[in-house]
Design goal:
Elements lengths: L1 H15 L11 H13 L2 E2 L6 E2 L4 H6 L3 H15 L14 E8 L5 E6 L7 H11 L11 E8 L4
Antiparallel strand pairs: 1-2, 3-4, 3-5
Length: about 150
């Protein structure tokens, strides 16, 4: 009988589970603490004028993603260096400087290549590969980026 009572008591203790604290309405003190914590995140501008909020995760997501652009441009440069029927052993070598302008949609809006490759089959192939780059959409002004495609690397 005693064992049965202990088992029953243990089962009740487990079934009730842990308490996670109050899950109800916030008190005025709780609301005040939250407001003070939010105010503490504010930082004065260098010129002593208004306050600015720290950059939020959402703000960061809306900016131009430099890291993702770099990854996509590396892939596109690899593709450009192997343009089928265009890249030859005796073809032009060196670095081709490509300038890309990204629209807010993340697509390449405009592209240009350094003069020694301009209007050549290889230059057109490189621009086609780079124009296919897509980065995550962003907020703000269009973003212009320069990128070197090294045709000497193997």
């Amino acid at each position: 009988m005693r064992k049965t009572a202990l088992v029953l008591l243990a089962a009740l203790a487990v079934a009730c589970g842990p308490s996670y604290g109050s899950q109800g309405v916030k008190s005025p003190d709780d609301l005040l603490e939250e407001q003070l914590a939010e105010d503490a995140k504010r930082q004065p501008k260098d010129d002593g004028s208004d306050y600015v909020m720290e950059e939020t995760d959402e703000d960061k997501r809306q900016q131009f993603d430099e890291r993702q652009a770099e990854l996509e441009l590396i892939r596109a440069a690899r593709s450009a260096k192997t343009c089928v029927g265009v890249v030859t052993a005796d073809g032009p070598r060196g670095k081709a400087k490509v300038t890309l302008t990204f629209a807010n949609s993340g697509n390449v809006k405009a592209s240009d290549i350094s003069s020694e490759f301009k209007d050549t089959p290889l230059g057109k192939c490189i621009l086609n590969a780079m124009a296919a780059v897509v980065v995550p959409p962003f907020v703000g002004a269009e973003h212009t980026l320069d990128w070197d495609v090294d045709l000497d690397e193997e």
